[in-house]
Design goal:
This protein is of the alpha+beta class and about 100 residues long. It has one helix and four strands, in the order ββββα. The strands form two sheets. It has a two-stranded antiparallel ribbon. Strands 3-4 form a two-stranded antiparallel ribbon.
Length: about 100
Amino acid sequence: MLEVPLLGWGWSGPVVWWNPVGGFRHAFSREVRPRPEQRRDTLCGQHVVLTDPSEVDWLVPTCDICMSAAIEHGREQERQEQETSRKLRERFGEHGGAL
């Protein structure tokens, strides 16, 4: 995964990936995009084999445990981005004038 901060470039990627499997929409870590036939672990701890979901498959309920974990992943990502921003301001100044 790219280690260079992309602050100011907008979207820094997904917090987690979602995929319907086993009757619920489950969340997966952001490192690898879900693809059919992958064996993956959900954020709630289930071991699943992904399928190619239909439009109707996306209408299943969201796993509550995955949703809680996804929220926490989002908060952690936000903390990391704020810390990176703080370090860049310390190093280069508030407006990048030290560049």
